[in-house]
Structure formats: C-alpha cells, structure tokens
Amino acid sequence: MKAVILAIGLALSTQTFAQTGISENWNGIVEEAKGQIVYFNAWGGESRTNNYIRWAAEKVENLYGIKLVHVKLSDTSEAVSRVIAEQQAGNTTNGAVDLIWINGENFATLKRAGLLHGPWVGKLPNFPLTDPENNPEMTTDFTVPVEGYEAPWSKAQVVFYYDKSLTENPPTSMPELLKWAKTNPGEFSYPKPPQFLGTTFLKQALLELSDNRDALYKPVEEANFEEVTAPLWSFLDALHPYLWRSGRTFPDNGPALRRMMADGVLSLAFSFNPNEAASAIANSELPSTVRTYVLKGGTIGNVSFLAIPFNASHKAGAMVVANFLMSPEAQAHKQNPENWGSITVLAMDKLSSEDRARFDALPNPVGGVTTQGLQQVVGELHPSWIEALEQAWQERYMAH
C-alpha cells in the first residue's frame, strides 16, 4: 500500500501550474485568489500566534479579498494525516487543507510521498527578500532540500531563560544543567515528547552529549541507534529525579513552562522563540527579573515554512497569503515582541531603506538575548531521528 501511495504521490508532485489551472503570472494568481477562502492549518496553542494570524487575516481580506481561516492544530501531524487520508480516499482536487505551517519530519513525510503542491515558491515576489542564494537555511529543512515546495516564514532558535531573583548562575551546558538541577530540585522541567518543544530538548541534549554528531545528520537507519543515544538516556536518567514533580509528570508545552515561571514554580525554562521571555515581560506575563541566554556551545536553530498540499482547494489564495506573510510589513509585525516576537526570515540588506526602518523601529524590551548569542546556531538533526527519539523516550519513561 505504501508503495502505491508513493507512486501516485510522485506522479502528482510533478504537476505544473498550467495543469492545475493556476496562472504563471503573479498578477493572474492574485486575481484568481480574490474571493477564495484559505484554510490555514497552524498550531493554535499560543495566544500570540493566534492573535497574529487574526491580524494577518484582516490584512489579506482588505488587500486581496481573501478570507483566511485559522484551523487551530494541537500538532502539525493532524494536518499531515488529513492530507494523507484524503489522498487515500481519492480526493485529489478538493482538499480541506490549503496552507500548513510546517517543517521537519512533517514536511519530509509529505514531500517524500509527493503530497505537496509545487514547486511554487519561486513565483512569490517576496521570496528573493530572504536572499536564498546566500542563506541555505531558506532552502533546506532539517537537511531535506525544499526545492520550492514550501516558503520560509519564521526563524527560531532554542534559548534558555531564568529568573535572576531566584538563581544567579544558570547552567550553560547539559552537564551544568544536571549539576544545577541537583542543587535546585524541582525548578526545571521540559514538555513531554512528542510535543515539539519536549522533543527539541532531547535533540539539544543529544547533540551536545553524543560522541557521534555526524550520525545525527544522516538517516537514523544508517546509525547504531542504541550506541549513539546512550549518553542521552544516561543524562536523562540522572536528571529526571530532580525535575519538577521528580519527572513523574511533565508540562504540556512551552506556554505551560512560561506560566510555571510566572508562578515561581520554575526558575529556569527554555523556548524555541528567542524573544518569548522578552515579549512576556513586555506584556506583564513574566517578572522583569527574567533574562534570556544561549548555551555556550550553541543551540538548535531552524526555519519554519508554509506548504500547500497537492490537493488544496484554493492554491492561488494560499500562495498570495504566503507571499503576504513573507512581506516586510507582516514580518516586522511578527517580530515585534509586543505582538509575537518571532524572528524574521528576511535579509535586511535585501530590503529598501523604508522597510529596514520597520525593523529598526521595533522595541528592544528587557530580558532579550543578544544578537551575538543568536549567531551560535546548531543545525537540526535529520528528520528521521525525531520519531525514533520520541518512541524510545516513551518506551523508557512512560511504559511503566
């Protein structure tokens, strides 16, 4: 069955814009998009994200006559499963998912099965503003070539944040974190995998502790999984007794970690948004004594993207929305810590002086991480490692 699905998918993935009825001309695409309803499947677990998408929906309706509907997901895999189910049912033209906020294993799954529309990103007028020729992260997703099947939307990097009124010397490495946790029991935790931030903690720890980093950037099938991951499990076995609730239960997600920091339950937490703590301070969600930093060996960074399924009902509308979300106006609004604080994918030297001024004018609130810290980026693992790590974690810590 999988072979049949893959064969059908690969055939679909070679379709051209002409075959799908979409204009080759951008003005024609914009005209076709008028009046379309675009169902944007995106994580809905964060109020800032939801508010930003609501703002974007008002914009695209006023500018292009497009109605943008946020389909709130608890996990991106929900949208991926929907697309796969529609393909299996023979729905090749009237899909319920028009646009997905996606990256990593979810993108790799759909691309491998040929269930993405495209290539289309080269059609977007704003795509050159990311300077893809000089920024390979705009064209590679967790080591997988994008090849025009998804548009860059947001940059992220793991940062840690702490309350300096509760702890003066936060840990700057995983071994230091273990020592710190023993001295400050119950004051740190991480979300339960497969929640993406929890899985990210596993990846960050593995990258730092593994003796064979090169294996992590290749398919997991090519590695001795038990040997490569042994340092991770030894670390977690030692760490868990000193976590919040002694590692018997875990927070649900990143917002839960932030609330626990606000309540003084935790004195150390982490995020995939470098501006999360600063934004929370600006919005009175965290005390002004919270500070953000990057581990001394660097932290995982990635780009998240926007993809269109092969059978999306409103492809033109999805393309116009994606192009707007990549615009300097939308990117600056998103990077504003008072709105979301998500880092732009745009290259400043590709912008006009007027558009650069949008970013120069953004506030720089208390608690943020330095630009130098954000240059210490460690690449993402090959996507095949994600499910393997999640399954191994579940078997080791949740099976009893």
TrEMBL record:
It holds the Pfam family SBP_bac_8. Keywords: Signal. The keyword Signal applies. The keyword Signal applies. Residues 1-18 form the signal peptide. PANTHER family: PROTEIN YNJB (PTHR42779). This is ABC transporter substrate-binding protein. It comes from Pseudomonas kielensis.
